[in-house]
Amino acid sequence: MTIQNKIALIFTVLSAGIILALSIYIYIFASESISGSFYHRLEVRAGIVGHAALEENKSKTSVYYDFKEKHLGDLPFENHHVIHNVNSARARNIKARLHLPESFYSQISFDTPARFFRRDTSYVGMKIAKGDKNVLVLSTAVDVFGLAEMENLKNLLVTGFLISMFFVFTFGKLFSAQIFRPIRLIIRNVKGINAHNLHQRLVPNDSNDDISDLSQTFNDMLDRLEITFEVQNNFVSNASHELKTPLTVISGEAQIGLSIPGLPQNAIDSFNTIYRESERLEHLTNSMLSLAQTGFDGKKEQWEELRIDELILDVKEAVDKIIPSNNVAINFDHLPDDDQKLILNGNKTLLKAAFSNIVLNSCKYSDNKPVNVIIRADQTYAIVEITDEGIGIPDREINQIFVLFFRASNTENYKGYGIGLPLAHNIIRMHQGKVDVHSRVDEGTRFVTYLPFK
Ligand code: ADP
To answer: Which residues does UniProt call coiled coil (predicted)?
Structure first.
């Protein structure tokens, strides 16, 4: 879950808790106050009934009832039971019918009436005395309006709760989206920065807050990275340049040596080995030089229009020099009818380095078994498939073969540095292309490169 959603959720849960507690408080408070006032009205009526019952003068009794009738009126389902003698059979009968708990009766005293509520009905018990006589009045009534009011209040609170939750969550999301906007912006900008555009910087916002601090910290880090990258890059470039000249001289001298007539066979073999190995070393230094160039800023290079089939023929020539016994066959059967689909815009030297690395690997890791190169095209790309019958790449390592200096676990019998494929990958990506790899251990590997035609 994103932090943004987490904040919206926490905000909602917190608000839900507060609104729920407030709703419960309002409900309890309203319920107490409505039932309190209803009990009070019932007690007033129970008092009148009790006093009427204690009145010996019957004309006065009717005055009580008249008063109650005229000024107070009846409550819904109002009922009074007057008990003169609590031990009488009638009293027992009434108690059995009302079926109230014993605690209710024990609460009743002359000062305080007892109150009880069960299944919508309110019960009041009062003791009323006059002179030496007293009566117990048990009154019941149903607060129809109060109950309806409470039901309304409950519905109102539940609806209000749900509506407010909807708003709280929506505003919570908007609010957290607003807060995280600058952070998302930073993430997007940082994602766009890679080895090719290390000079790019985040734009710190004007506010002097933590976010602009974060941008500034990123920018400082990028400054340091850029310097380190440039130093490393310059070193690799310079070292490769320095190595190139003596290597060219060595291979040239070896070729001159080979052309000396009447040379004994062991001297020819030695010159051949010197020539091959210096070509191999030259290829490696060229790769390192290209890696330094493509790793930093590919745009420095010169781009031109070139044909992929011609490029692959050049690659084959270079491979023949390094591994004369190779078994690479170029298959032109799948060439597209439309020649335009073979024309790319790119850097010839770099693309040659990329493809020769892939093809050389295929020869190397298959011990010079046949390597098949197919050139074809689809609607967007000129496609080159390079298939070998070599040792393959273990499944779980296939994702790492484009990582610099990575070598698979089954390559211990083969020389290598883990530079060639990352370089090829860099170069092809620089040309807006992509590379797919399919491989099975001990069966072979297929590299499929896609480069957009012009
Ligand atoms: P290396 O110098 O080791 O060949 P690369 O960068 O050219 O370095 O290749 C990286 C790794 O990818 C190799 O070490 C090897 O494990 C694997 N790999 C590349 N091409 C092949 C292939 N055709 N067959 C089997 N494994 C390959």
So the answer is: none
Read off the pTM: 0.52
Is residue 109's pLDDT more than 60? Answer: yes
Query: How far apart are the CA of 402 and the centre of ligand 1, in A?
Result: 9
Domain of 139?
3-150
Please check whether residues 281 and 345 belong to one and the same domain.
no
Residue 382 CA to ligand 1 center (angstroms) comes to 23
In a domain, 137, yes or no: yes
For ligand 1, atom 8, the nearest C-alpha belongs to: 418
**Domain termination site, one of 150, 169, 184:** 150
> Mind spelling out the 3-state secondary structure of 156-216?
HHHHHHHHHHHHHHHHHHHHHHHHHHHHHHHHHHHHCCCHHHCCCCCCCCCCCCHHHHHHH
Q: Percent helix, strand and coil across the chain, each rounded to 5?
A: 60, 15, 25
Ligand 1 pocket mutation pick from 284, 393, 415 by most atoms within 8 angstroms of CB: 393
Torsion of CA 173, 174, 177, 178, to 10 degrees: -150
Each residue's pLDDT tens digit, 118-157: 988 999 999 888 878 888 899 999 999 999 999 999 999 9
pLDDT tens-digit series, residues 41-59:
999 999 888 888 887 777 7
* CA 401 to ligand 1 centroid distance, Å: 7
Query: Does 284 share its domain with 314?
Result: no
* Closest atom of ligand 1 relative to the 419 alpha carbon: 6
Domain shared by 237 and 326, yes or no: no
349 & 400 share domain: yes
Q: What is the CATH number of the domain that holds 381?
A: 3.30.565.10
Report the C-alpha gap between 114 and 20 in whole angstroms: 32
Asked whether the predicted pLDDT for residue 210 surpasses 90, the reply is no
Domain count, the chain: 3
Q: Parallel, antiparallel, or unpaired for β 304-307 and 328-331?
A: unpaired
| Domain end point (choices 244, 264, 295) | 295
